[in-house]
C-alpha cells in the first residue's frame, strides 16, 4: 500500500471519528458505527490506532489544531487590536449559525469522563489553554491593563457563549458576550 493511500485511509478514519464524536459523544460512538460510516474494515482502523481511546485522542487533537487555526484566521481578518478582540465573538456568531454546531467538542467530551487525568480531559484542558493564550496575545497587542486577568474574563465569556448557544439554542449568545466584552474592555 502506498503512503498516499495510507494517509487517505487514516484521514478518512479521523474525519469520521471526529464527526461522530462531535455529533453523538464518545460513548455513543462505537467501533461498529465507525467501521460502517468510514467504509473501512476494523482491521484498517487498528492498523493506525491501537484502540478506540488512541483514535479519539488523535481525532480531538486534529480538531483542536483546525479549530484554533479557523479562529485565528477569522480574527486576523479584522483591523485594529480592539476590533480583533471583539472579532472573536463575531467568529463565534458565525459558528453558532452553522448547521453542524453542537457546542465545544472539548467541553462535551470532557464531560464524559470524571477523571481529571483522563487523556480526553487533559486534551480539553490543553485546548482551553491554547485559547486562553491566544486571547492573552490579543489583549497584550491591544495594551489592556492586566492582560492575563482580561484574557481569563474573556475565556469565560467565550465558553459561556458557546454553552448558552448550545444548551439554550440562543442565537444571540455571541452578540450578548460581545457586548459584555466591549464593556469589560472599555471599547
Automatic annotation (TrEMBL):
<keyword id="KW-0804">Transcription</keyword>
<dbReference type="InterPro" id="IPR001647">
    <property type="entry name" value="HTH_TetR"/>
</dbReference>
<dbReference type="InterPro" id="IPR009057">
    <property type="entry name" value="Homeodomain-like_sf"/>
</dbReference>
<protein>
    <submittedName>
        <fullName>TetR family transcriptional regulator</fullName>
    </submittedName>
</protein>
<dbReference type="Pfam" id="PF16925">
    <property type="entry name" value="TetR_C_13"/>
</dbReference>
<keyword id="KW-0238">DNA-binding</keyword>
<dbReference type="Pfam" id="PF00440">
    <property type="entry name" value="TetR_N"/>
</dbReference>
<dbReference type="InterPro" id="IPR036271">
    <property type="entry name" value="Tet_transcr_reg_TetR-rel_C_sf"/>
</dbReference>
<keyword id="KW-0805">Transcription regulation</keyword>
<dbReference type="GO" id="GO:0003677">
    <property type="term" value="F:DNA binding"/>
</dbReference>
<feature type="domain" description="HTH tetR-type">
    <location>
        <begin position="7"/>
        <end position="67"/>
    </location>
</feature>
<feature type="DNA-binding region" description="H-T-H motif">
    <location>
        <begin position="30"/>
        <end position="49"/>
    </location>
</feature>
<dbReference type="InterPro" id="IPR011075">
    <property type="entry name" value="TetR_C"/>
</dbReference>
Amino acid at each position: 500500500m502506498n503512503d498516499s493511500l495510507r494517509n487517505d485511509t487514516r484521514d478518512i478514519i479521523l474525519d469520521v471519528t471526529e464527526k461522530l464524536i462531535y455529533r453523538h459523544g464518545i460513548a455513543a460512538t462505537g467501533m461498529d458505527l465507525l467501521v460502517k460510516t468510514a467504509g473501512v474494515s476494523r482491521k484498517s482502523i487498528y492498523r493506525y490506532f491501537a484502540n478506540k481511546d488512541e483514535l479519539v485522542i488523535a481525532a480531538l487533537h486534529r480538531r483542536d489544531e483546525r479549530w484554533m487555526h479557523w479562529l485565528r484566521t477569522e480574527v486576523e481578518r479584522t483591523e485594529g487590536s480592539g476590533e480583533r478582540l471583539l472579532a472573536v465573538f463575531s467568529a463565534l456568531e458565525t459558528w453558532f449559525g452553522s448547521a453542524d454546531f453542537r457546542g465545544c467538542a472539548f467541553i462535551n467530551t470532557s464531560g464524559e469522563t470524571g477523571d481529571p487525568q483522563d487523556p480526553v480531559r487533559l486534551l480539553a484542558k490543553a485546548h482551553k489553554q491554547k485559547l486562553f493564550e491566544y486571547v492573552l496575545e490579543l489583549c497584550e497587542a491591544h495594551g489592556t491593563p492586566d492582560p492575563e486577568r482580561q484574557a481569563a474574563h474573556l475565556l469565560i465569556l467565550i465558553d459561556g457563549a458557546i454553552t448558552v448557544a448550545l444548551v439554550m439554542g440562543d442565537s444571540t449568545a455571541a452578540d450578548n458576550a460581545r457586548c459584555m466584552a466591549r464593556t469589560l474592555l472599555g471599547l
